[in-house]
Amino acid sequence: MSGGSTSAASGGSFLGRAGPLVLARLFTAGLTLSIPLVLARVLNLDDYGTYYQLFLIATTLYYVLPFGVVQSLYYFLPRADAKRPFLGQTLLFMSAMGLVGAGAVWALLGYVAGWFSNPALAEYRLPLAAYTAFLLGSFPLEVSLTSQGRTKASAVVYLISDAVRASVMVVPPLLGASLYGMMMAVAAFAGLRYLATWVVSLRGATGPWVDGQRFREQLTYAAPFGAAMLLAIPQQNAHLYAVAGAVAPALYALYRVGCFQLPVVDLLYTPTSEVLMVRLGELEREGRLEEGVEAFREAAGKLAYFFLPFAAFLFSAAPEFIGAMFGEKFLPAVPVFRISVLGVVLSILPMDGTLRARGQTRAIFASYAVKAAVTVPLVWLGVKHFGLMGGIGSWAVAEVVGKAMLLARVPAALSTPERKLGVADVIPWQSLGKATLAACAAAAAVFVLRAGAHGAWAHLPTGFLWRVLPLAVAGALFFIGYLVVLHFTGVRPLSLIAGLRARRAG
């Protein structure tokens, strides 16, 4: 009886600890969302395409160059007594990688500009190099706090950093600044964030600044995951680079709108996965490995109730969403957008975090290697023969293949000598079934609404509020339909929200 109580309490505490991170990102999601929406209206299509190309380069380096060292903090800090060595050597490593990234931008941006058929790209060499250097150097900021169990402090940092970042990207263009002026402002923000990383991350940590033996252990652990990132990030972005090299910046802007995703996945998946990693580490330290599968199923089940309806709504209301958010000139992006929402569904199971927490980073590398091998021919053939739809279609196929490989490894990662698990044992079937039924029923209602109200929408007056009205009506219908069907399946939606709130353990 006591064992059941402990498990339940631990599960509640586990999800509650993700609450501050979720709430912080929820608060700043609107500001972050405003960035591409505002720029879509104040920049011409060529500059808008250039904006996406600049950040494509920076984010590729941001995820590749850390080589898994920052993410390794989730493994080492929950198990370490002296935390400063892991923090100090991670900060130094990332500062060095920032310089490498800046050098790569400075040396290669001219070549990339030619590949993208966008000579204007080379004019942004200075701000893009500075932004990349400071962005990489500040990567450990939130991770260092979350991996120490300081989720509230991490939430505050997310809140401040995301709010300031959104402001420096939105306000200058609204005041008449050029895209170059915005990039200089973003580089300055990244520099301030880099300084804050050194001050905040090391606060309260004990031990020497650097320990050679521990750094070698860190690199040994991180190497498979880092190598996986060397394959995964270029693979995930391959369709973006292929399309950028095949079409003009204005058409590339259209494609990126089709690939646009609301920050809901990052808002919920990332903190849930981070806290799951820390929880699995704690369970291992306490000799309670058998509880890991319950923690995984609980996290995945909660994500299913949010991600499945989110994806179903975006798919069914894609024309209303694109028209309201970006304007009617971007409506040709709807078919691309509908395929891109598959990524939301594929994020339900926090598999990569689980494998990292169990030290099985080689499985992640194998998954990304296969995805890369699949992506290269698919992207080349897809973009060549099917254009924009070929690009997004190749990405979707590769993602399904990679997720399937990860899923095949999760049962072994969560198994114990006394209990061997299979794939069916780790999937929250009941939650998936109820969420799917409710989401599909609500999506069908949106399609019926569009068929019946199409003529009325076509005669609405111009203006932003009128343009948002069809999306608002579709959203209200979907939301009500989803909750009603969930209620009839025995699910109480308020209990799902409560599971993500911060609360103390019993």
Number of helices: 21
Assembly level:
single chain
Number of strands: 0
> What order do the helices and strands follow?
HHHHHHHHHHHHHHHHHHHHH
Taking the alpha carbons of the first and last residues, their distance comes to 15 Å
Radius of gyration from the alpha-carbon trace, in angstroms: 23 Å
Share of helical residues? over 70%
Report the β-strand fraction as a percent range.
under 5%
Runs in which pLDDT lies below 50 for 5 or more consecutive residues are 1-15, 502-506
Number of domains: 2
- Global outline: globular
Describe the sheet with the most strands. Answer: none
Average of pLDDT? 85
Helix and strand content put the structural class at mainly alpha
Summary of the model, kept short:
This protein is an all-alpha fold. It is 79% helix and 0% strand. It has 21 helices and no strands.
